[in-house]
Amino acid sequence: MKIIVIGAGVGGASAAIALRRLGHDVVVYDRVRENKPVGAALSLWSNGVKVLNWLGLGEEVAALGGRMDDMAYLDGRTGDELCAFSLAPVTEQTGQRPYPVARADLQSLLLDAVGADHVRLGREMVALADDGERVTVTFADGSTDSADLLIGADGARSLTRDHVTRADDGGTRIERTYSGYTNFNGLVPADTAIGPVDRWTTYVAEGKRAAVMPVAGDRFYFWFDVPQPAGVPYDRADGTAPLTEAFGDWAPGVKALLAAIDPARSLNRVEIWDIDPFHTWVRGRVALLGDAAHNTAPDIGQGACLALEDTFALAISLATNTVGVEDSLRRYAAARTERAADLVLRARARGAETHGYDPVRTEAWYAGLRGADGTGIIRGIVGNITGSPVNLGVGVL
After folding, report:
1. For residues 26 and 17, what is the distance between their CA atoms, to the nearest angstrom?
2. Which residue ranges does the record assign to the FAD-binding domain (predicted)?
3. Which end of the chain is more exposed for a tag (fewer CB within 10 A), N or C?
4. 3-state SS of the chain: helix, strand, coil percent to 5?
5. 388 φ, ψ (degrees, to nearest 5)
């Protein structure tokens, strides 16, 4: 079959790799003119890494991943250690080490695996039509393309989603919900003044977070969470000024992180939004994948992993079901919507706990971190992984 994928991000690119390996003729379209991923890095937990292993990219992904052996929480004001523990149980229980990776590195790997002849950048979809036999896409430049089916991996503001949920026929458009905080992120050289180079270190206080994870190339992926209303003005010329205002009197490790940031090289600012879970992912020969289907806040680090799970489930459904395209897509959606909805809501609940929206609840979380042995935190991380379809029904060991 010929398959059109709209969106060249992690979800769209991984889907294209999987579908090409099944022998389909796949072309990926994206409105961006060059590969410039949004966000500096991402967490590939064991479920996401397993999908990449399945795609034949295991060694390459391991080379891109940071060596993250331990995890620790520190008091943001004093730098005092609240708790520290090994992440080895995650690997032991799930069968795969997790990796933080620089997003640009992963994106380049995926697009190379898709193949340049199958990727068309600078092509913005403006309309699509499904006549029951073929799906036809119209682009902003007036050109068109047709295929047997279309996968909409076109992100949080998905035009494909409008088609699938019938918003383009006058129905109610699915809108995003503000999560209550702004995230600043980027990459800096790894530095033990900030935290050990093999540890995920998070400073917490006042509903705010400052954290680093190791990625390949002796770098830290950093992020700061600042609870604030949506729409607070920001000019890139402001650089780290909002971070200095919010974190400038924090612990020495945080001050070292602030000093290491070069805004001209790596500093992103994004308001965090998500979408209420919905279960209409398929209409005829058109299906949603990734953020178009389940835009989630990053509070449990499962956004990219969910998109990779979608790829696995979609490919398996198309490979094993033979009634027809529409049937295979419906079975894909039926396998995915409940799990995705559950993780979207888990991330939302986690954000509410950590960002001080209810100060009593957040202080109770801080209190629970003091002296913790990590058992509960590991249980939560593994719990997010356990239900992945890539585990083939096998729970943790």
Report:
1. 9
2. 2-345
3. C
4. 40, 25, 35
5. -65, 140
Domain boundaries, the chain: 2-176+274-390
Count CB neighbours of 4 within 10 A: 25
Q: Is the separation of the CB atoms in 200 and 212 below 8 Å? A: yes
Q: Coil, strand or helix: which one is 50?
A: helix
Q: Left, alpha or beta for 115 (phi > 0: left; psi -120 to 50: alpha)?
A: left
Largest interatomic CA distance in the chain = 64
Please give the share of the chain, as a percent, with pLDDT higher than 90: 95
**For residues 244 and 325, what is the distance between their CA atoms, to the nearest angstrom?**
53
**CA atoms in the 13 A half-sphere facing the CB of 363:** 3
pLDDT digits (tens, 9 = 90+) for 118-135: 999 999 999 999 999 999
Helices (runs of H) and strands (runs of E) counted in the chain: 13, 18
CATH (one of 2.120.10.80, 2.40.30.170, 3.40.50.720, 3.50.50.60) for 2-176+274-390? 3.50.50.60
What is the C-alpha R_g of the chain? 21
Q: How many whole angstroms separate alpha carbon 281 and alpha carbon 243?
A: 38
- State the CB neighbour count (10 A cutoff) for residue 235: 7
Q: Beta strand pairing status for 41-44 and 70-75? A: unpaired
| Phi-psi region at 8: left, alpha or beta (left = phi > 0; alpha = psi -120 to 50) | alpha
